[in-house]
Amino acid sequence: MNLRNIVWVGLATVSLFNSCTSKEDRIENVQEKVLDVKEDLKKAQEEFIAESEKRIEENRIKIDELRIKIANSDIKLREEYLIRVNKLEQKNTELKTKLKEYKEEGKEKWEEFKREFNYDMDELGKALKDLVIDNKK
């Protein structure tokens, strides 16, 4: 069989397949794929939200630990540290609210939300890590 015949047989096969597959079947196939994509996105969102809630709770614990350190220390700048910890706690609460109030608006909006949220979470984590309480008088 030469190349021309192979191409012709291939085209005939595709045409035959397309004619055998009804328009309704193709539409149903596309609809199933769309549902699968939506389901995958929903699952990814649920996993992201669960992980984010865990990170928010870990931040809350770190904030509580910092409050205890401040309360039990003889540092001169106790009030300044408390102000900084309060700001970090407020940011953590804002992130929790932002996560809770997120409304599904499609994949592009989700990706943008996720990117911004992760950035804010990372910045808060760095700030918590960088807040070192020195117990020197």
Any chance you could write out the topology, listing elements then pairs?
Blueprint: H1 3-20, H2 23-71, H3 78-101, H4 107-130
H-E string: HHHH
Query: What distance separates the N and C termini?
Result: 92 Å
Q: Unreliable segments (pLDDT under 50, ≥5 consecutive)?
A: none
* Average pLDDT metric: 83
Helix-strand makeup class:
mainly alpha
Rg, nearest Å: 28 Å
Tell me what the CATH architecture of one domain is: Up-down Bundle
CATH fold description of one domain: Receptor-associated Protein
CATH class of one domain: Mainly Alpha
Proportion in helices: over 70%
* Number of contiguous helices: 4
Number of strands: 0
**Which shape, going by the Cα principal axes?**
rod-shaped
Please tell me about this protein's structure:
With 137 residues, the chain is mostly helical. It has a domain at 37-130: Receptor-associated Protein (Up-down Bundle). It has four helices and no strands. Helix 2 (23-71) runs antiparallel to helix 3 (78-101) and helix 3 packs antiparallel against helix 4 (107-130).
